[in-house]
Amino acid sequence: MLDRTTIDQLIADIGKDVFLRLSLQFLEETTNRLAALRTARQAEAWPELARHAHSLKSTAQSFGLVETGILARELQLAADHLETDKVDAALPKLLAVTTEECAAFQGLRTELESHRDG
């Protein structure tokens, strides 16, 4: 679920062009971060997993991806406390929700780009 209030406020604060540039970077970094989360879990690299989850939480919240932020926080806490059962429950949910929210976010970006002068 995208938080349009957060997104609209961010656009008002930084401008549409800067938002479009930064949001594209966010989407690219998020794709890489999801891969890094998978890799860290496979390697049982708990501090790395927690760090990537924390970064995803922060950026997702900044760009209005509410559920991604919530689930990333759950994953971060589970990794910080070495609760592998909770990590294994949270990670697949996070991957699915983030993929869905990023698709919706990209749709919003596409809409904004088509009205770039507006």
- The radius of gyration is 15 Å
Q: Can you count the helices?
A: 5
CATH secondary-structure class: Mainly Alpha
In sequence order, what are the helices and strands, one letter per element? HHHHH
- Going by CATH, the architecture would be Up-down Bundle
Overall description:
The chain has one domain (4-113): Up-down Bundle (Four Helix Bundle (Hemerythrin (Met), subunit A)). The two termini are 25 Å apart. The model has no long low-confidence stretch (mean pLDDT 95). It is mainly alpha-helical. 86% of the residues lie in helices and 0% in strands. The protein is elongated.
Provide key terms for this protein.
mainly alpha; 118 residues; Four Helix Bundle (Hemerythrin (Met), subunit A)
Which SSEs are present, and which pair or pack?
Layout lengths: L3 H11 L1 H27 L3 H17 L3 H15 L3 H31 L4
Helix pairs in contact: 1-2, 2-3, 2-5, 3-4, 4-5
Brief sketch in words of this structure:
This protein has 118 residues and is mainly alpha-helical. The chain is built from five helices and no strands.
